[in-house]
Design a protein that fits this description.
The protein contains eight helices and seven strands. It is an alpha/beta fold. Helix 2 crosses helix 3 and helix 6 packs across helix 8. InterPro entries: Methyltransf_11, SAM-dependent_MTases_sf.
């Protein structure tokens, strides 16, 4: 990830999501619907999982409650967020790193989660290639992205006015089936696609053949 993008993300407080869910009704509803949709797409994992872009571990904790893995790993570019994740999930293995160059061996994970993260990177196709490299054959990756629909673009524009810390953090916009095509080019099979929040968010479940 570029130095500029890294600096922008480091300006986001590690408490941002926890505070937002507690104090902001819009964020509370947004994340509740995310968690509900994601929980329906997950299943128990008898092995090791990775949360890419884990930030403070809030979503990682939810993922663990749905999957009950033996081991959990997380990676994020923000040192402050990783420190909070380590405090939140003491048994987790969290590292500072770039998703475009994952520091793990090939065929290592039984499931990978990449939630509202691909829109933040310069080369999402490189992230998908890395995910394909480190997930085991026959196992899945769950990708969540915002769509390019008018409602999301409008809300994101208004959100940036109220919360300027997020300005410039979205460097990718995913039109219809762009993500699916990228995933297939990386070697994945697209197993399932679901949209929710009035079409503003999309979950894509990928399998490594």
């Amino acid at each position: 990830m570029s130095k500029k993008l890294t600096e922008i993300h480091e300006n986001v407080s590690p408490d941002h999501y926890d505070t937002g869910i507690k104090n902001n009704i819009f964020q509370r509803v947004w994340h509740f619907t995310r968690f509900r949709a994601l929980s329906k797409m997950t299943e128990p994992v008898d092995g090791t999982i990775l949360d890419i872009g884990c930030h403070s571990g809030l979503c990682t904790e939810k993922i663990m409650s749905w999957t009950h893995p033996r081991e959990v790993y997380g990676i994020d570019i923000s040192p402050k967020a990783i420190e909070k994740a380590k405090r939140r999930i003491k048994a987790g293995k969290f590292v500072i790193g770039d998703a475009q160059d994952l520091p793990y061996e090939g065929d290592f994970f039984d499931a990978i989660f990449c939630l509202e993260m691909l829109e933040h990177v310069d080369f999402p196709e490189q992230v998908l290639s890395q995910i394909h490299r480190v997930v085991k054959k026959g196992k899945c990756a769950l990708i969540l992205i915002p769509t390019d629909n008018l409602l999301f673009r409008t809300i994101w524009f208004l959100w940036n006015i109220r919360h300027p810390v997020w300005k410039h953090v979205h460097v990718q916009s995913f039109k219809e089936e762009v993500l699916e095509k990228m995933a297939e080019e990386a070697g994945f099979k697209v197993e399932r696609v679901e949209k929710f929040n009035f079409g503003m968010l999309k979950i894509v479940k990928l399998i490594k053949p």
